[in-house]
């Protein structure tokens, strides 16, 4: 339990793509740390999963407020290309701050369906790597999973899309973990969404 949290390796293995509480529980289990879940409304000084989650969220929101949010140019370009082509887009994120971030970068209206941590909690959807959130998004878009492409940078998200039997699962490797994304079920791994040839991708993989 004396190993500190590694901001790269531990984040990718236990936190990335999972909801806030599941990520914290996973990390604590890895260090054999057993603490109670606690209550979201508990203001005591006793450590709990909910207290850690609340502190993590405050730090994150402070960073966003002070430093802003950033959109990868390749991602923005692909979103715009999809919009011009009339392709329906969904955003699936375990984060409860998803809409806040999309609003901060003026992309909240780019997606016809947004399934985030808040929606998942309200609808009783399982956290990634369960496929629930992706399947819920596909239903919202009125798209069969087999006719949809998923882009994911988290191993848990890749596994979720694979479990949901989506037509093409593309891992996005921005943290030197391409092998892990492939092992989780990615059909291919790219370094940036700017590498995507959308027309060729749809023609070759989805027959559109």
Describe the structure.
- The chain has 208 residues and is mainly alpha-helical.
- It folds into 2 domains: 9-67, no CATH class; 73-206, HAD superfamily/HAD-like (Rossmann fold, 3-Layer(aba) Sandwich).
- The protein is 48% helix and 9% strand.
- It contains 10 helices and 5 strands, in the order ααααβαβααβαβαβα.
- The protein has helices spanning 9-15, 20-30, 49-67, 73-85, 98-104, 117-123, 132-141, 155-163, 178-184, 198-206; strands at 90-92, 113-115, 149-152, 168-172, 188-190.
- The strands form 2 sheets. A 3-stranded parallel beta sheet has the order 3-4-5, with helices on one face.
- Strand 1 (90-92), helix 5 and strand 2 (113-115) form a beta-alpha-beta unit.
- The model has no long low-confidence stretch (mean pLDDT 90).
Note the main attributes of this structure:
10 helices, Rossmann fold, two-stranded parallel sheet, 3-stranded parallel β-sheet, single chain, mainly alpha, 208 residues
How many runs of DSSP E, i.e. beta strands?
5
- Residues in β-strands, percent: 5-15%
CATH class label of the largest domain: Alpha Beta
N-to-C SSE series?
HHHHEHEHHEHEHEH
C-alpha geometry = globular
Estimated structural class: mainly alpha
Q: How would you state the average pLDDT, rounded? A: 90
Unreliable segments (pLDDT under 50, ≥5 consecutive)? none
Q: Can you identify the CATH superfamily of the largest domain?
A: HAD superfamily/HAD-like
Sketch the major β-sheet: 3 strands, parallel
